[in-house]
Amino acid sequence: MDKITNETIKKAAKGDIHAFEELYQNTSEYVYNVAWRVINKHEDVEEVVQEVFLLIYRKLKDFRFEASFKTWVYRITVNTAIDYLRKTSPEKEKTVGYSEQIPNATVPNEIEEKINDEYRKKTVKSVLKILSPEQRTCIVLRNIEDLSYQEIANILEININTVRSRLRRARETLLSMRKEVLHHEL
Amino acid sequence: MNCKDIQKLLITDYLDEQLPAETQREVERHLSECELCIEHAFAIKKTTFEPFNELNRAKPSQDVWIKIKNTIEQENMPQKSIAPNQLREKLKNIWPNPRLAYAAGAFTVILLTSALLFQIQTTKHQKITQFNTKEQLSQVEYITQLASENNDLSEETEENYGNIIEEFFLSKK
C-alpha cells in the first residue's frame, strides 16, 4: 500500500487505466482479506471486491488527500462489505454453538486439549459469525489487519472509545461462548 | 489499580499494545503479583487473539481484474441509450437524496403546467381579439354605410329646404 504515489492516484483519477491497475495490484490483497472476513463468506468475496474497486474508480476524482489513501480504501471496503451483509442477511444471524463443531471427548483430561485444537481450526469463521457487523469489523481490523485504535477510528469515522468498547464487547462475547462450551463438555 | 481495572485493560489496550508506557508497566507489575489476573489474561489471549494469529491471507483471482477493467471500459464508452435501471443508478449518483429529487420533480411539473395553462390563455385571448377586430370591422363598415346613406338623405333634404325658402322669398316680391 505504501508503494502508491500521489502521482499514480492523480493519474488514475483522470481515468488512466494503467495507473488504476497499479492501485489495484497494490491494494487488492488487503481489500480481499478485509472483505472476506467481514462478510464471512468465501463465495461472494470476489463480487464484493469488484464492487469496491469500481467504487474506488468512480470516487477517485473526489479524493482530496486529506486522509491517507490507505484509510480511504479501508473505509470503502468496510462500508461495501457491511452493505452487502445488510442486503443478504437482514435478520440477525443465529448464535453458532461451538459444541456443534467440537467432538465429544471420552477422557476428561483431554477435553480441554481437544476443545482448543478444534477451536483453533474452525474457530475464525464461527467466532466472527457470532459478532454483529460492527464488532466483527473492529476485530478484523485490529486482530487480523493489525491496525491501531486511532487508525480504526479514522476508517470507521467513530470515536476511539467506541472502537475500544466494540472490541471489549466482542471479546467478552467470545469469552463467554468459550466458557459455555467448556462447561457443557465438562 | 485494582483487579477490575486491570481486567478491563487486559481485554483491550494491554493485549492490543495501545497503552502508554507508564500504564503498561503498572499492569505488568500487577500481573506479576496477581494469579487471578494472569489466568484472565491467558484466557483472553487464547480465546480472542490466538485464533487470528496464523491466518492464511488470500488473493483475488485474475478474473476479478478482468471484470473490473471490462466494466470500466464499458462505462467509458459513449452510450446511445441508457437502460432504465442504469439511468436510475446515474440519477442516484447525481441526486442521492430521494426526497429532494421528488420535491424538485414536483416543482418542475407545477412550473410546466402553469406555463402550459398561461400559453393556452394567451392563445385564446389572441383569437378573441382577432374575432373582435373582425366583427368590429364589419360593424364599422355597416355603420359607415348607414352613415353615408344618411348623408345622402340629409343632403337631399337640405337641398329641398333651400329651394322652398328661395321660392318663399321670391314669391313675396
Present the secondary structure layout:
The complex is a heterodimer of chains A (186) and B (173).
Chain A: H1 6-13, H2 17-39, H3 45-59, H4 69-88, H5 98-101, H6 108-130, H7 133-144, H8 149-156, H9 160-185
Helix pairs in contact in A: 1-2, 2-3, 2-4, 2-7, 3-4, 4-8, 6-9, 7-9, 8-9
Chain B: H1 3-14, H2 21-31, H3 35-49, H4 62-76, H5 84-94, H6 98-172
Name the structural class of chain A. Answer: mainly alpha
Helix count from the secondary structure assignment of chain A: 9
Described by strand count, sense and barrel closure, the largest sheet of chain A is: none
Largest interface: A-B, 39 and 32 residues
- Tell me the overall shape of chain A: elongated
User: Mean pLDDT of chain B, nearest integer?
Assistant: 79
**Poorly predicted spans of chain A:** 92-108
* Percentage beta strand of chain B: under 5%
- Alpha-carbon distance between the termini of chain A? 47 Å
| Topology of chain A as a string of helices (H) and strands (E) | HHHHHHHHH
Rg over alpha carbons of chain A:
19 Å
Order of helices and strands of chain B: HHHHHH
Detail the poorly predicted runs of chain B. Answer: none
Number of strands of chain A: 0
Radius of gyration from the alpha-carbon trace of chain B, in angstroms:
52 Å
The major β-sheet of chain B equals: none
Query: Percent of residues of chain B in helical segments?
Result: over 70%
Q: Roughly how many Å apart are the termini of chain B?
A: 156 Å
How many helices of chain B? The count is 6
Helix content of chain A: over 70%
**Structural class by sheet pairing and helices of chain B:** mainly alpha
